[in-house]
Amino acid sequence: MCKIIRKILCIIIIALVLFIGITIWGKGGDKLRWIGEKTSEIIKKGADELGKKADNLKEKTETTKEKVKKWTGKEGDKEDR
Fold first, then answer.
1. Cα–Cα dist 58/65, whole Å
2. 69 and 75 in contact (C-beta within 8 Å)?
3. What is the CA radius of gyration of the chain?
4. Among 19, 26, 58, 67, who pairs with 31 as Cys (CB 3.0-4.6 Å)?
């Protein structure tokens, strides 16, 4: 328990020192805003890529369902569940 608390306190102290250092030597909050913009761009790009892959997978799934229905002769019998 004490080790966990000590590690958390160390992380907080390191984060505080980095924040103060970036603020003082990095000309205020501009650097922090820049870091925020860059991370949001990276997250946005990642989300776009995941969205494209999900769309591609959905299209493949629909195509496969249609082929299976044709092969099994169950076209138009029942709606998808």
1. 11
2. yes
3. 26
4. 26
DSSP codes joined into one string, 19-61: HHHHHHHTTTTHHHHHHHHHHHHHHHHHHHHHHHHHHHHHHHH
d(CA 24, CA 55): 45
Q: 75 by DSSP, 3-state: which?
A: coil
At which residue do the structure tokens 């044709």 appear?
A: 70
Sign of CA dihedral 64, 69, 75, 79: negative
The pLDDT tens digits for 13-69 are 998 888 877 777 766 677 767 777 777 888 777 777 877 888 888 888 888 889 999
Cα 39 to the chain's mean position, in Å? Answer: 11
